[in-house]
Design goal:
Structural class: mainly alpha
Number of helices: 17
Shape: globular
Distance between the termini: 60 Å
CATH architecture of one domain: Alpha Horseshoe
Helix content: over 70%
Order of helices and strands: HHHHHHHHHHHHHHHHH
Largest sheet: none
Strand content: under 5%
């Protein structure tokens, strides 16, 4: 009973911070988690949550620091290694050509460690597969290694196995095979929103806008159980400069709903809403949306830059 009395406040605070993160209240989540990790420096879960909070706003150095602490405290946790690898990966993408390879190698190591610690970790196998497809051979990449992960994923998550093979086919410039694999992923996932979105992204890269629109409509219709796909779909529409009106509509749908996702924080949805409105020439409404994003995540650089643009 005494132990529970001691643990209960910490557990409640962690649950609150996790909920704040899901709702996209990055500043509140970070403040709560900074307090938790200061008062309970051995709380690996809190350090991992803090890593994810900083990751969400693009602060890679702080994300790495928090994730490294989580791994140091609990080195056998597959998900902690996965998140550390993700933070390293973003740092690699944001670094110079001289330092990026070092960060990429760290990414590779963490993803492989995550898989070794938990062979059933689908997210870890998926991220490792993506690394294998994208990275050159001298940095540990290789489509043969990605295929080995696809074979492992066949029993764990068949749709993910098809996605890996679609990425391999794209790497090999075999677009017909890639499309077949994306459609097989849709069938294996029973028409999931994320699988339709992946097909839409493929069509965008392939320069097939009409097909992209059709796939996105399917993704949006199926997004009830995967609300983050609404935000991803809006982002793709904005990037493709196609139907910003629809992007605005589905972003409002997401922001007005109770269903939120850590993968699509509310401040990011507000930022995308501002971007779409800005493209339509509505600077006042765009400024309001960018300000709403910054009210949740004041250090989110894209929203800061957007607000400066429309208030000059």
């Amino acid at each position: 009973m005494v132990l529970m009395a001691v643990l209960a406040p910490a557990l409640l605070q962690a649950e609150t911070a996790a909920n704040l993160l899901i709702q996209g209240h990055a500043d509140e989540a970070i403040a709560s988690l900074e307090s938790t990790t200061k008062n309970s420096p051995d709380d690996a879960a809190a350090h991992n949550l803090l890593c994810r909070a900083y990751y969400s706003i693009g602060k890679w150095d702080r994300s790495i620091s928090a994730c490294e602490k989580a791994v140091a405290l609990d080195g056998n946790n597959s998900m902690y290694h996965l998140w550390l690898g993700r933070a390293y990966g973003e740092k690699a993408d944001d670094s110079s050509v001289f330092s990026a390879p070092g960060w990429a190698k760290k990414t590779h190591l963490e993803f492989e460690t995550a898989v070794r610690l938990d062979p059933s970790n689908v997210e870890a196998r998926s991220d490792l597969s993506e690394y294998y497809v994208d990275a050159p051979g001298f940095m540990g990449g290789g489509t043969d290694k990605a295929e080995a992960q696809a074979q492992a994923l066949e029993k764990l998550a068949p749709a993910k196995a098809h996605l890996v093979r679609a990425e391999i086919a794209q790497k090999n410039k075999d677009m017909d095979s890639a499309e077949r694999e994306y459609r097989a992923a849709i069938q294996a996932s029973k028409g999931s929103a994320s699988a339709w979105f992946d097909l839409a992204s493929f069509f965008h890269k392939a320069g097939r806008p009409d097909d992209m629109d059709k796939a996105l409509n399917e993704a949006i219709a199926a997004a009830k159980t995967e609300p983050d796909v609404l935000v991803d779909s809006a982002s793709l529409l904005i990037k493709a400069e196609r139907n910003c009106g629809l992007a605005i509509q589905i972003l409002h749908r997401y922001l007005d709903s109770e269903a939120k996702s850590e993968a699509a924080p509310a401040f990011k949805a507000d930022y995308l809403l501002g971007t779409a409105l800005e493209k339509q020439g509505n600077k006042q409404a765009a400024a309001e949306a960018y300000s709403a994003a910054l009210a949740l995540a004041r250090d989110f650089t894209p929203a800061q830059e957007g607000l400066k643009r429309v208030t000059r």
